């Protein structure tokens, strides 16, 4: 995964969670970027997560927001009408290219993109809101990531992270780049509290229905944890 830098970010010597990850265990999201939105299950998941965020968060038109691990921007663009400005950040140039095409096609003035890999970079923010959806399980050092995102919030800012609830490892057909099989409610609330966030709450944002290898229907809850700095 190529590391891309931006003037508002600097390398962090203490945030090295991903540096020891073998390159072969990183998924090539560039290769699937152009077809990412063709999976109906992904579209529904993004819609459900956005709906849960809108219900759990006091979104307002003066908010400066960041979507970490934005991918093709499904959640980014879902939140765009409800905040003042939102930045979609991702380490995949291919995904950001897809999002940039959407921004241009829709003529959106309050959405920008940013190449960023927080496994290697430190975020200097001042954000009113930071969100992420289905990205945590691709990050090796999740506690360090939560700490970095929390630090980038303004006082009073909100952090909202959505990902799979702990599962048995059968959700992903291809486990390349999958470093965690979901997260428990206790883990998420504990990390939020450890970083000084208040009003911490966890809700079930979505449930993904997906057949197992034997064809048996299986349900995978997606949790949304929110907290205020």
TrEMBL record:
<dbReference type="InterPro" id="IPR029063">
    <property type="entry name" value="SAM-dependent_MTases_sf"/>
</dbReference>
<dbReference type="GO" id="GO:0008168">
    <property type="term" value="F:methyltransferase activity"/>
</dbReference>
<dbReference type="Pfam" id="PF13489">
    <property type="entry name" value="Methyltransf_23"/>
</dbReference>
<protein>
    <submittedName>
        <fullName>Class I SAM-dependent methyltransferase</fullName>
    </submittedName>
</protein>
<keyword id="KW-0808">Transferase</keyword>
<keyword id="KW-0489">Methyltransferase</keyword>
<dbReference type="GO" id="GO:0032259">
    <property type="term" value="P:methylation"/>
</dbReference>
